[in-house]
Amino acid sequence: MPIIIKSRFEIERMRRAGRLACEILEKMRNAVAPGVSTQSLDDLARAELERAGANALSKNYPTYRPNEGFPGHTCISINEEVVHGVPGARTLKDGDEVTLDLALSLDGYCADTALTVGVGQISPALQRLLNVTRESLDLALTNMRPGRRWSDIARLVQHFVEKNGYNVVREFVGHGIGRGMHEDPKVPNFVTAEQLTGDFLLRRGMTLAVEPMVVAGRRDVDLYRDGWTVYTLDRMPAAHFEHTVAVTDTGVDILTDGRSAAEIAPMAIAPTGT
Questions:
Q1: Cα→Cα distances 50→54, 55, 61, Å
Q2: Does domain 8-262 have CATH number 3.90.230.10?
Q3: What integer pLDDT is reported at residue 263 of this predicted model?
Q4: CA atoms within 13 A on the CB side of 68
Q5: Where are the domains of the chain?
Q6: Concatenated DSSP letters of 44-59
Q7: Residue 65 carries which DSSP code?
Q8: pLDDT tens digits for range 38-78
Q9: Any residues with CB less than 8 A from the CB of 225 and at least 6 apart, and which?
Q10: Three-state DSSP class for 40?
Q11: What phi and psi values does residue 203 have, to the nearest 5 degrees?
Q12: Are the CB atoms for 237 and 97 separated by under 8 Å?
């Protein structure tokens, strides 16, 4: 499918969705503490989504099992869980790290964002994993601009992660986003011959969900019996950070950082003013 270029109007609608996602994610982050259940964090997000009139894009997301969509409003993954953790009765413990992943739709426009945070006092080694993963996302966003191939960005991310002694998960990648949560193109955080067949040039008006998933050990992953939660086979910890962004004339505009249109400088994001 062709990559959909967004107008300024569409990007500003995505920013509204992104600002809401940022606000809800921050409330979830502030509620993270030892003894808190992942279900209570999901319930917090559900209440905020309902209050804002927004839809959780994870809820009932389809799977290969008929009539068994994703049960949560958010994905909450702990320690060795990489992505798509199912909220439930499990409680957080001091020293854990937890990934909060929220995708929503507001007035027909989508935003997708995630972060990994420590629970209570975490080890320096775990904090370093979180720092490097966040820095890998920052590296990608800093280097994005029209005319660059995505493979150039992915190569930078992969090299940075591996130079720091970690690995990038290859089974899951970022994606285009807009009216739908998952649009073309695929946005990997690594470079292989297979991925290069889907390489693309960054263009003004593209909107992408960029989301490096980094593991402390081997990059091999599998699924738990719930059919959703992805975990590392060696049970080493994982981290995940994500932003929804729009490509501008000179770089990217982060749509999930909480800023409103009034708080940013005017930018020529798309060729039309509609």
A1: 6, 8, 18
A2: yes
A3: 75
A4: 8
A5: 8-262
A6: HHHHHHHHHT-EESST
A7: S
A8: 999 999 999 999 999 999 999 999 876 667 899 999 999 99
A9: none
A10: helix
A11: -135, 145
A12: yes
